[in-house]
Amino acid sequence: MSDDALTGLEAERARRGAQVAAMREGGREPYPYRFDRTATLGEVRARHAALAAGTDTGERVSVAGRVMLSRDQGKLQFLTIRDRTGELQLFVSKATVGDAAFEEIGRLDRGDWVGAHGTVMTTRKGELSVNVASAELLAKAIRPLPDKWHGLVDVETRSRQRYADLIVNDEARRTFEVRHATVASFRRTLVERGYLEVETPVLHVEAGGAHARPFVTHHHTLDMQLYLRIALELHLKRLIVGGMERVFEIGRVFRNEGISPRHNPEFTMLECYEAFADVGDVMGLTEALVRGAARDALGTLEVTIDGTACDLGAAWPRRRMVDLASEAVGRTVHPSQPIDELRGVARGAGVEVDPAWGTGRIVEAIFADKVERSLAAPTFVTGHPVEISPLARVDRTDPWLTERFELFIAGREIANGFSELNDPVEQRARFEAEQAAKDAGNAEAGTVDEDYLRALEYGMPPTGGLGVGIDRLVMLLADAASIRDVILFPTLRPEATP
After folding, report:
1. Residue 78: phi, psi to the nearest 5?
2. What local confidence, expressed as pLDDT, does residue 485 receive?
C-alpha cells in the first residue's frame, strides 16, 4: 500500500474513532449489548416478494444488518443493509424520524451495523424497503471495508482476513454455504443408512492410518511424545471390533507436509466403516454421498470444474491402476515384474524413481505422473499394489494387488476406500514392513501399533471403509481454484510486519 493510501486509511480510522468518543461523551453506547430483531432480511423479502410498488403494508418489523450502501437525497436517505440471509433497503424520511435522528443516521458509515424499527413498504419504483421509524447503531466499524480503499482480490489477503473477505465477496459466502450443505448432506445420508457419528482422539500415541509425516507434540504431565492424528482410521476400526458395526467421523486431521493449491497442513476428512461390507459396497456408498452432496449443495448433478462441464449423474467407470498405467506407457506395468524391469519402464516414461522404492511404489509413481491428471470424469481407480496399501485386504484374484480404490474427479483424488484388512497376523507383518521403511529414512511410513493389533486379535468382522477429503470435494462443487478458498482460516506464514 502506498504512503498516501496508508495516510488516508489512518485518517479515516481516526475520524470514525472520534465519532465513537463523541457518542460516549454524549451518554450513548456505540456498542450496545443486544438488539431485539423480529425478522431477518430474507424473511421480510420472502413474505413480501410480490408487493406492488408504492405500497405500505403497515406491518411493523425490527431488522438489523451491516450498512453496505447509503444515498442521501436531501430529506430522504436510502441505506442498503445486509445480514446472513440477504439485503434490504432502509427508507429514512426526515419527516418521520425527526431532524436529530435523521442527522444521526446520516453519520452512519459503510460497514456499520445498524438496527431499525419500521413498517414494510415498497417505494414508487418498487424497491422493497423498511420505512424507518427509529434506528440505532449496533456496532461502529472503525476500519473501512476493504474495497473502498484498495479492494480485496489478493488470495493471501483474502485468506488471512477472512472476516473482510466474507463481508465484501459474494463468492466467498457462497463457497462456505456449499461447504455447510456438503457436510450436512454427508451426515444426513450416513445417519439414514444406520451409521453412528462418533468422536475419536486427536492426540495419538502412534501416527497411523495413512502415509504422512506427522506433527509431534509432548504431554508434560505424562512425559510422553504424542502425534496429531494423520487419519481417523485406526480408532474407528477399533469401534467396529467393539461391535458398533457402522460408524463415521467428520474431523480435522493434520499432516506436516507442503502447502499447495490442493494441500493444507490441517484439513477435514470424513471416514466411515461398515461391518459385513467390502470394497464394492463402499464404492456404491461413495457415489451416493457425492451425488447427494451435489444435489443438496447445488440442486444439480451437472457441475462445472475449471470451466469444464462434469455430469456426476453419469456412470462412474472402475479401472485398475495397473491397466491405466500400462495403457499410458504402452507397456505392461504390474508390481509382480522384476524391479529392474519396472525401473526401466519408469525411466523410459520420464518418471523419477527413488532407489528405496519397491515395485508397488514404482507402479503408483507411473500412474500418478502419466494418468492421474487426465481423469476428468468421475473414475474409480482400483487394485492398488500391496506395498502402498498396508491396511487393505489382498485382492481375491491377484496377490500383488489390494481391494482398494481411489475416486478421481477433474484429476484430483477425492476419496479412498477398501476392504479392510482384518487378519492380525498379516496386519502385523504389514506394520513391521512399514516400521522398517521408517527406520530406513521414510518419514511418511507407519509404525507398529500394538494396541490396534490387540484389537484385531479380538476379531474384526469383514469391513468396508471409506475416507473422503471434504475440502477437495467442496473445491469441486464450488469450483474453487485453491484449497485456501474452502477453508475459513487456512495455514499461512506469519504476517510480515513493517
Report:
1. -125, 120
2. 94
At 441 the pLDDT is 83
Residue 308: predicted pLDDT: 86
Tell me the one-letter amino acid at 343: R
Rounded to a whole number of angstroms, the distance between the first and last alpha carbons of the chain is 11
- Name, in order, each residue with C-beta under 8 angstroms of 279's C-beta and a sequence gap of 6 or more: 382, 403, 404, 405, 417, 418, 419, 464
d(CA 450, CA 457): 11
Question: Which residues 6+ apart lie within 8 Å of 423 measured at CB?
Answer: 456
Strands (E), 394-478: 404-409, 412-419, 463-469
What DSSP element (H or E) covers 270?
A: strand 266-275
Measured CA to CA, the distance from residue 132 to residue 134 in angstroms comes to: 6
Q: What is the reported pLDDT for 3?
A: 46
> What is the Cα–Cα distance from 219 to 203, expressed in whole angstroms?
10
- DSSP secondary structure string for all residues of 69-98: EEEE-SSEEEEEEEETTEEEEEEEEHHHH-
The one-letter amino acid at 487 = I
For 163-193, what is each residue's pLDDT tens digit?
888 998 899 999 999 999 999 999 999 999 9
As a whole number of angstroms, the longest Cα–Cα distance in the chain is: 90
8 Å CB contact between 369 and 349 = yes
Our CA angle for 292, 294, 296, nearest 5°, is 70
Residue 66 confidence (pLDDT): 98
Question: Which cell is 492 given?
Answer: 499461512
3-state secondary structure of 464: strand
- Rounded to two decimals, the pTM is 0.91
Convert 141-210 into a string of H (helix), E (strand) and C (coil): CCCCCHHHCCCCCCHHHHHHCHHHHHHHCHHHHHHHHHHHHHHHHHHHHHHHCCCEECCCCCEECCCCCC
The residues of the chain scoring below 70 in pLDDT are 1-7, 147-153, 497-498
Helix (H) or strand (E) holding 360: helix 359-370
Q: What pLDDT is attached to residue 348?
A: 96
Strand ranges across the sheet with 203-204 = 203-204, 224-228, 216-219
- What pLDDT score was predicted for residue 114? 98
Give long-range contacts, CB 8 A cutoff, 24+ apart: 162-167.
Answer: 162/488, 162/489, 167/66, 167/111
